[in-house]
Amino acid sequence: MLRPRRLDTIFDEESTGVIKTTFRDESNNLTTPTSIRFHITDVSGQVVVYDREVTPTNPAYIELSGPDLQLFANEKSFGERILTLFCVYNSDISSDAPMNESVRFKIRNLRLVAYPIDLSVLDHVWSIDTVDVNV
Q1: Measured between alpha carbons, how far is residue 65 from residues 17, 56, 127 in Å?
Q2: What is the torsional sign of CA 57, 60, 66, 67?
Q3: What is the reported pTM?
Q4: Where are the domains of the chain?
Q5: 3-class state of residue 68 by DSSP
Q6: How far apart are CA 54 and CA 87, in angstroms?
Q7: Could you read off the pLDDT of 47-88 as tens digits, one per residue?
């Protein structure tokens, strides 16, 4: 089994972040899925978010906030999560075909920050990263 690719963005604990997703069919054409849903688990498989639906658009934006980006008691400086997308799409070749993808991302534990933070440099609330989903 392949390991999910890692997103570059590190989300802040219990903050807000967005994962932008784009979708391409087997001919590498942009396609809008007929349905999109996702799960989030920690790396051991403990469920954080189960079966949440997203409006099917291309691109689609998955907003994570508060409890979606919560850490567990045993996680120290960072926690890792796996977001798995489950999509269905239609194309010239297929109807109601599955298009799935998994990505890993990190959450920074803000309660264990060991150095002072200059709040003037924190000019945004949102973190964003992009996932390209291909058949």
Answers
A1: 6, 20, 10
A2: positive
A3: 0.81
A4: 5-125
A5: helix
A6: 10
A7: 999 999 999 999 999 999 999 999 988 888 899 999 999 999
